[in-house]
Amino acid sequence: MAHLLGAEALHLEYPTRVIFDSVTLGLNEGDRVGIVGRNGDGKSTLLKLLAGRIEPDGGRVTRRRGVTLGMLDQADTVDSALTVAQAVVGDIDEHVWAGDAKIRDVIGGLLSDFDWHAVVGTLSGGQRRRVALAALLVGDWDVIFLDEPTNHLDVEGIAWLAEHLKRRWSAGSGGLAVVTHDRWFLDEVSTATWEVHDRIVEPFEGGYAAYILQRVERDRMSAATESKRQNLMRKELAWLRRGAPARSTKPKFRMDAAAELIADEPPPRDTVSLTQMATARLGKDVVDLLDVSVSFDDKLVLKDVEWRIAPGERTGILGVNGAGKSTLLGLVTGTVQPTTGRVKHGKTVKIASLTQQLSELEDVWNDRVSEVIGRQRTSYIAGGKELTPGQLLERLGFTSAQLSTPVKDLSGGQKRRLQLLLILLDEPNVLILDEPTNDLDTDMLAALEDLLDSFPGTLLVVSHDRYLIERVTDQQYAVLDHKFRHLPGGLEQYLALRKSGAASAATAASDQKATDARDAEAAKPALNGAELRNAQKELASLERKIAKYTEQIDALHVRIAEHDQSDYQGLGVLTAEVAPLERQIAEFETRWLELSELLG
Fold first, then answer.
1. Which residue of 112, 144, 431, 445 shows the fewest CB atoms closer than 10 Å?
2. Which residues, given as ranges, of the chain have pLDDT below 50?
3. How far apart are CA 177 and CA 57, in angstroms?
4. What total number of domains does the chain contain?
5. Which residues form a coiled coil (predicted)?
6. The domain containing residue 236 runs over which residues?
7. pLDDT by residue (tens digit) across 366-418?
């Protein structure tokens, strides 16, 4: 495979610590690499080094001559003065980019509901992020680097991006490196995995599932095996080996080795025991939504929702942004009142919500972690074992040194984990998680799921993380067209329903366009005899010119392909001859469209 870019003996250090020490790696044609590791270990830094955005303190980064590289990093911003159209396609005429299937695909996948003429500065942060991603993907790149591209994308957007990246290049060409905590996405797009840890980058074959298998084998064979980490990864591997319920294919790694490693590993949850415990704590009544509808300022949000939440129920809730998921959760917690219908809460219900606002930490912002934990319960039961708050902190990735850190100085992921811990120590019997994966790396997500496996209550999860939804819930519902719909087929059924809904909308739009076209045709002025003949002659002439220039471009492409590929100057001359021909064809096609519309 042809080499695209690489690093040789990279060394990088900051005043307080060494990030990389003698790292050597390469990216070849056809490579699709997922990059994983703990937050803060250098995943984003590695991408920036390889892209040339920062310089190493030692070693070097090499790139094959002529290789083009596009990158989306977490700090990317789009000029706020531009419109969405200008930010994505620049000054290219609409008839040109509209004829490009790739550009249409990107716009349809990421910006279908955007106002094409909206000013970027008026958009939300998530919308600007989608515009930046679209602007990158419409370009022609040999190599693409993506840093957390699934942030601000819903389940549909993530599925679209995975499909786009899988078919963007032909087999054996192009290169992709992606940093993401979305494990489903990693498994879909990656053929190799780089784990960033302890100043090195360790390569593994295959996507996330294969990486987990190899990591468990590595830990088992290592003399310094960390038993807690190994056990957690064995549990993760057992889940992957059984296969997520909504997946069409199971991970392609050495199934015999996997079976041997997890032969004695039980299912992630003892559903029967958890349900019995939940019923004992909650009774038979949790929360019932009875024929509930909600409207705000005459705008319908939810209609005729019937949902009787059971003790021990573990439900994932799907829906596009703005569909009404937060309103639905508000009905459950009691912060939203129904417009019609009624909501009934059980007498022993104690609801807690893990929100995105970190509100649980506001009162302890300046306190040290150890002080915050010291004021809580002395023990917590998880997986049938009694754990101290300190042990729970350790299980969620906190070190002893971090216990003396003020809450305000914790990283985003650490605050998120502390927030969850405080909620669990309060022992609610109904737990609501609203996008709980924010700021967490893949190891911490596995630890979070391990804790949730032993939660003896009702669990409601809203998330765009497909892997998490399938992993911690037993059933899924969706908010679709103001209705609350059960999804026996899980995530795949939801995507199919959304796709069929989009197709119906497209058909309606097409019918409207046809009506508009008929109206325009009826209003079109008729040409007289001489004008009609002249227009027909010019149209025929344009068709001959377009065919002639197209043949010349095809001939140039053949010459470029047959030319000595090391003669960059000669290739540059040939390539330069193509551009004016393409511009001339574009002008001919514009005039051809005008005449075609005139002639009907």
1. 112
2. 223-225, 246-255, 274, 278, 506-507, 509-511, 513-515, 517, 520
3. 22
4. 3
5. 532-559
6. 208-264
7. 888 888 887 776 777 666 677 777 777 777 778 777 888 888 888 777 888 88
Going by their DSSP bridges, the two strands 458-462 and 314-318 should be labelled as parallel
Same structural domain, 213 and 287: no
Q: 506 by DSSP, 3-state: which?
A: helix
Contacts of 416 (CB under 8 A, 6+ apart): 358, 436, 438, 439, 440
**Co-location of 345 and 218 in the same domain:** no
Residue (of 225, 284, 282, 217) closest to 254 by Cα position: 217
Tell me the C-alpha distance between 59 and 12, whole Å. Answer: 9
pLDDT of residue 274: 45
> So what's the pLDDT on residue 300?
94
Beta strands 192-197 and 200-205, pairing class? antiparallel
Q: In angstroms, what CA-CA distances link 99 with 113, 115, 184, 382?
A: 20, 20, 32, 57
Query: What are the residues whose beta carbons fall under 8 Å from the beta carbon of 51, sequence distance 6 or more?
Result: 69, 71, 145
Do the domain assignments include residue 258?
yes
Find the helix or strand (DSSP H, E) in which 512 lies.
Answer: helix 490-523
What pLDDT sits at residue 477? 95
Q: Tell me if 62 sits within 8 A of 25, measured CB to CB.
A: no
Please give the backbone phi and psi of residue 432, each rounded to the nearest 5 degrees, phi first.
Answer: -110, 125
SS3 118: coil
